[in-house]
Amino acid sequence: MTISERVGKFYLGAPYKKDHGPDSIGQADLVNDGLNCQAFVHLFYLDVLGIPLDPQMKSKEISQDEELFRSVIEGEAPALGDVYCMGSVRTKPRNLHLAVVVGVNDKGFPILRHANKKDGQVSDATLSDLQERYGMIHAVKRHKDRVQE
Fold this sequence. Notes:
By secondary structure, the chain is of the alpha+beta class. The protein has 5 helices and 6 strands, in the order ααααβββββαβ. It has helices spanning 3-7, 30-33, 37-47, 59-64, 127-134; strands at residues 69-71, 83-87, 97-104, 110-116, 121-126, 136-143. The chain has one domain (3-143): endopeptidase fold (from Nostoc punctiforme), CATH 3.90.1720.10.
């Protein structure tokens, strides 16, 4: 099965639950019980890209990491698995919202998937929708070991 086939509807519609983060993986049925944006990123990386992330890698760690992740340079084409870290100017790094690129639309803009409170579930959104909802982009990160098709 290719990476694109694994992405499909991966976790779409799974309920949102704030306190089910990366530490809950393996301890709860996140598809039915819910998960937050951080747990979604971890599951996407593990189940779609085959890259396990340390459970301690949460919003702050992903947004600031330069060992496992590199910053995506402005103007660089979006790629499957890029992680957008978003929030207002005042958002603390540990509270940044995370969304993962699951595809690109016909204009070359990223399609982002995220677990979120507003929709109450995992859903897809455009970058402009997420910027309206969460504010500015603090970082866009790409895992250095990400396998490309």
